[in-house]
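User: Just a sanity check before I run the rest of the batch. Below are the structure tokens for the first item. I only need the designed sequence back.
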């Protein structure tokens, strides 16, 4: 590990530094990082050091990390984990700083503490601007209202070209205030409710149904989950967890980490004791998050996945949860339950100057121009 540059004083009291090295940097900051997440604004599991370290160990073990750390009043107030790489953007060779995240990361944002984060965000941006070493900063899947939006705003105010594009709209179900799951069902369509009742009766004719909570990283339950997920179209396309060694490593490690953190929430809908649908879920901050669902496709006419979701919503309300977050993009089966969505964006900051302007134009202006010309 080395510290890139000396501690540099940003405007105001914050002190900012870049730590550069491998995945071991994350554990060196572990206690302070976890304490920062525990304050609240950045409490999602996806922002915690355990999640990001698991991602890097599985998918990018040789990646070069650059972690921007802002301290104020003797405490860490902001952490932004980035990866350094040389890449191309629309054919241009570039030096890139990008989020320490990928397709299995669900969402990303800089980690900040409770209170007015503007001075800390400004300090992080000033440090990135002054230390340089990059042509573009790329941050993926930032939820609307995320702190990275403010980082990009500071960059734009300093004359750096910036841009964003919407990557997904994640559905979620509001549970707060609902007395029971019937209140949630009243928000859905009558046709969907009738189908749900009919399909439940059809499954009950085949045997006894029950939902089982599995709060530990039980190897047998995880194996059944991976098996169910591989049975469907993901297995046919080779995109199921169990089809790739690195992906399986990631979800195995997250299961162990999540169990140790007390947030892993495996759920199973069982037919005569055999799991026919499962959730690889997480419960954190009063919310249920669903990175991965799976079900037996031979029973798809009975919608076991939707029936499990119904039971999970019931269970969540009984345990005082405030939200069910589907994660990932909008899909029709998610839209059966809700019209509420949470937009996510990829954010880009380009180096000020001719190259930055050219890269910005190639990324954001030329595609729009080509689309307009095609529409003529």
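Assistant: Here's the designed sequence for the first item:
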């Amino acid at each position: 590990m080395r510290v890139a540059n000396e501690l540099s004083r940003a405007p105001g009291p914050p002190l900012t530094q870049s730590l550069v090295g491998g995945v071991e940097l994350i554990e060196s900051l572990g206690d302070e990082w976890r304490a920062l997440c525990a304050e609240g604004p950045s409490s999602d599991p996806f922002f915690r050091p355990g999640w990001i370290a698991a991602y890097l160990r599985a998918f990018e073990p040789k990646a070069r990390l650059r972690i921007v750390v802002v301290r104020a009043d003797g405490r860490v107030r902001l952490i932004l984990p980035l990866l350094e790489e040389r890449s191309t953007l629309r054919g241009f060779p570039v030096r890139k700083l990008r989020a320490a995240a990928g397709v299995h990361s669900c969402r990303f944002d800089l980690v900040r503490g409770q209170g007015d984060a503007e001075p800390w965000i400004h300090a992080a941006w000033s440090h990135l601007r002054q230390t340089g070493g990059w042509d573009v900063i790329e941050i993926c899947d930032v939820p609307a209202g995320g702190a990275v939006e403010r980082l990009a705003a500071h960059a734009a105010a300093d004359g750096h070209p910036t841009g964003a594009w919407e990557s997904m709209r994640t559905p979620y179900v509001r549970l707060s205030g609902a007395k029971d799951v019937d209140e949630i069902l009243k928000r859905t369509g009558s046709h969907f409710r009738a189908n749900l009742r009919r399909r439940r009766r059809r499954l009950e004719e085949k045997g006894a149904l029950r939902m089982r909570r599995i709060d530990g990283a039980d190897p047998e339950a995880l194996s059944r989950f991976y098996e169910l997920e591989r049975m469907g179209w993901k297995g046919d396309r080779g995109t199921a967890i169990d089809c790739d060694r690195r992906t399986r490593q990631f979800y195995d490690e997250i299961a162990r980490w999540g169990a140790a953190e007390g947030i892993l929430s495996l759920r199973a809908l069982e037919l005569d004791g055999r799991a026919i649908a499962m959730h690889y879920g997480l419960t954190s901050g009063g919310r249920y998050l669903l990175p991965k669902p799976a079900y037996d496709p031979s029973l798809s006419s009975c919608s076991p996945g939707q029936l499990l979701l119904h039971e999970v919503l019931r269970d969540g309300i009984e345990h005082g949860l405030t939200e069910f977050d589907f994660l990932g993009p909008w899909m029709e089966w998610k839209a059966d339950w809700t019209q509420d969505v949470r937009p996510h964006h990829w954010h880009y900051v380009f180096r000020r100057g001719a190259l930055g302007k050219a890269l910005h134009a190639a990324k954001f202006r030329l595609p729009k121009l080509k689309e307009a010309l095609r529409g003529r």
